[in-house]
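Q: Okay, next protein. This is Ferredoxin C 2, chloroplastic-like isoform X2 from Nicotiana tabacum. I've checked the sequence twice, so it should be correct. Can you predict the 3D structure?
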Amino acid sequence: MTNIYCIQQRLRTLRSHSLAGCCTSCAVRVKSGELRQPEALGISAELKSKGYALLCVGFPLSDLEVETQDEAEVYWLQFG
């Protein structure tokens, strides 16, 4: 595992340019670790509980292992 600083640097490269937390373009699924995302308006509590997160408004609290997600798939899961 890498340290928090390295994770924050990598998250910056994966983050969407919108930084608004209202779409699913930067969606990931957290495989391990903890990510705080208080402003993630574009993802439901149900999807958050299944490990989905939005990197544009995410703050790593530990080392993370994330899996990038297809934006359209996450949007469909969210809105049907």
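A: Here is a summary of the prediction. The first strand starts at residue 27 and ends at 32. The chain has three helices and five strands.
Q: Noted. On to the next one.
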